[in-house]
Write a structure and sequence with these properties.
It is built from 4 helices and 6 strands. Strands 1, 2, 3, 4, 5 and 6 form a 6-stranded antiparallel sheet that branches. It has a single domain (4-137), classed as Hotdog Thioesterase (Thiol Ester Dehydrase, Chain A). The protein is an alpha+beta fold.
């Protein structure tokens, strides 16, 4: 599996809670921003999916917290696909403190292909499944 740099940011004072470290809600925001880049890293265009009336929805998401982050620290999120099924894709995102590359949090996500007109899950198009399978195997 290939790891891709997805996004970078900085922990702002407003991201921190009464204990002085970044609050969990902001980890989720960094991961959410990064997740939007996953399909493109496999060569899948979000615009082409939208044109076909398709999108994706998060079916499952877990975050494990490893080390705290504080205001002023730079962050980096990397991601890799771990599995592709008939309707779903699995990927892992890792958030690092960018200067030391300390691994601070991990998000594991399952997204399901979604027909935006029918408002229901649907099979991944074959070309999309093939591209993501290549990313899993890389």
């Amino acid at each position: 599996m290939t790891w891709h740099e997805l996004t970078r940011g900085i922990v702002m004072p407003a991201h921190c809670d009464a204990y002085g470290h970044m609050n969990v809600r902001h980890y989720a925001a960094f991961f959410d921003d990064a997740g939007w880049h996953m399909f493109a890293k496999a060569g899948v265009s979000l615009n082409e999916l939208r044109a076909k009336g398709l999108g994706s929805v998060v079916a499952s998401l877990t975050i494990d917290f490893h080390h705290e982050l504080t205001a002023g620290q730079l962050v980096l999120v990397q991601g890799a696909f771990t599995r592709v099924g008939g309707k779903s894709v699995h990927y892992e995102l890792r958030l690092y403190e960018a200067e030391s590359m300390m691994h601070c949090a991990t998000q594991k996500t399952v997204e399901v292909c979604f027909d935006t007109r029918a408002r229901a899950s649907t099979a991944l198009p074959d070309d999309v499944r093939t591209k993501i399978q290549r990313a899993v195997e890389a």
